[in-house]
Specification:
alpha+beta, 14 helices, Pdz3 Domain, 17 strands, six-stranded mixed β-sheet, 2-enoyl-CoA Hydratase, Chain A, domain 1, Muramoyl-pentapeptide Carboxypeptidase, domain 1, 471 residues, single chain, five-stranded antiparallel β-sheet
Length: 471
Amino acid sequence: MIRRFRVRIIAAAAAAALFSAAPCAVYAGTNEETQVEIMQAAKNFQDTLQTLESSYYAASGETCNVESLYVSAMRGMMDGLDPWTSYFTPDEWREFQAGLTSASDIIGIVSEPMGDQYVVQSVVDNSPAQEAGIQPGDEIVQIAGTDINADNMDSVPDIIAAQNGTFNIVIMRNGVRKTFAVKRSTVAIPSVSVKKVTDVDPNAKAGNTANIRYVHIESFSDTTGEEFAKALASMKQQGVTRIILDLRGNLGGYVDQAVDICQDIVPAGPIYYYLNSEGTDVGATSELKTPPFSKIAVLTDSNTASAAELMAAALKDSGATVIGTTTYGKGVMQTVMQLPTGDTYKFTFQEYLGRDKEKINKVGVKPNIAMDYPEFFSQPLELSNNMTSADVPNLKSALAYLKYKPGSAAGSNAVKYDSDTENALKRFQNDNKLNATGYPDVQTLLMINHVLLTALSADNSEMDAALKVVQ
């Protein structure tokens, strides 16, 4: 079974989640009264800036100059808005753009901090990292002789990018320190892949699935539409009439690419509507009179976000069956404005609604066939003095999925770390050769992630449900 898993890091995915169309002109539609208010605010800002720059006394040694005050003011404006709106100095913007070429493009890993550890979340197939032996769940402790700790975790992609040729990566796996020689290479990561169903689901029978394909869209990069068009042409030549479209773990990307694909597979009509300060209108339409596929099953999870949700909603509203869990719920689009001084800000300029005008933002796309699974842990689990935590229900769900019989994850005691859950965790720790403290420390959570990944990778229940839909 081919499945991609990602710890929820939606904010990082905003790097690619920028809508290509520009919003209305800055002051278009602004009435005279508002323009006066803007001018007065600008005058107040200028006066305050001049006063602080000339008269502020830095008794504690803090920096107070025009640049630092300006940056603080710009950040302040953005910080008061939604999580997707942010300001970048020229250097930060260059780093932000450079970050789009990440360690996944160089050695084929996706990795992120988890507490005070830096953990591999996924490994690209046939990449240098996979060939070397690196696995999801490995904790990176050293790169080319540089120890990785809390002080330099944010620099790990830069440390990897600075390497040439072959270099060593040291990891911890199940308490054992291992060293791997990894050869730097440019990893071409296609965003669209197509496979026969029998290559994905061992339960499938070739004779019953000859006209069905499994299609996985990893993300919506600037080439995804073109990749899908080529795949679609090939599928048509092979007589494919039904697909299972996997959007699990797809954090979104360029909306225009999702629209391009929808125009190839969604029947005639609106693809989505948009809502902004001027009202609601059709965002994009399909003119397709005869869709290429008679049946589509769409696989989603809680990491299906942004442009992927737009696609899932358009397909669901067109008769496709969505299977899995409710999607993330990011139904807003951002655009970028660069200032003459080189600094940049991106901001939300519209919300999108589904083909049937249903709300997606903060709601998500609900599946027709719900199949809930535990989430991976992306941060330490901290228990309060009365042994409760908002993360305890997911811990219970994970342990229950792995057959360890914890306390109930529902009802008033769902957030309570009870004795049944403690004992279940001790059994898990014993089985995985960890110190059986019964406490959900970071090492235990990493091991739960690792064991979950193995178990979920072998779980074909979603594919089995999808096959029933499209056969």
